[in-house]
Amino acid sequence: MTMQPLHTCASYAHHGWRILASALTGQKHENNGQSCQDAFIVGGNGKAFWLAVADGMSKSSHGGEGAAVAVAALDQHMREATTHDLPRLNSAYLAAHTAITSAAARRGIDPTGFATTLVAAIVNEDQIHCASIGDSNITAISYSGDKIFGLCSPRLALPKPDPVTRIPKRRTYGINSPTWRKSTTFRSVPMETLAGFILHTDGANSVTEPDTKLYAPTLHQIGAKNDLRAVAGYFSIYSANIRDDDDATIVAALRPPS
User: What is the pTM of this model?
Assistant: First the structure.
């Protein structure tokens, strides 16, 4: 398992796949002397490997801690598993939910204080099993490298008016919620159709926007050229151009070239 504060880039390899994780602390957190409130894990064994990214919600008192607890619990569950499929991923999400509620109980606070999104994927011999709750996402790269599409889109709550401003705001679901199962999307995809995929928080959404001239070519380069340097390059562009208050995290995985 690898779990970091997410201030830099790091690379890994599992079953021939190349993986790069990178993140940027939001301007607001940096100005306040806070670390990135996202968390990630990259883990694996002889049968499969798995990735997860969590984004601690900014309005939660312990969102960053909740993100770290969620990915650690998911990783622990996967390392103890004998199977690595969609039902196992479902039970890993339950483990993450249970870990957050237990951590909140030990601190004497409501689990909403640990609110966090969670997006994860398991890669075994022939399939990619993925899940998403909240506004983090998984974006896939087609085998030819010329198509970008959502692999496991989250279920988003309908906007509700702010009680003070009356401006509609979209509520984000979290793995801390007691109704997390209803808000989580699960999906399995044949591995042969993909060149790779990227797990990312909403702070890094611009890397997956096909109509954004500055960023879309980066994602195409990752698939078409099988080049993970493009992921690191994305963050240098992001930092210089549109860095904002939100933390931004991506974990990209590329399958072995055929």
Answer: 0.83
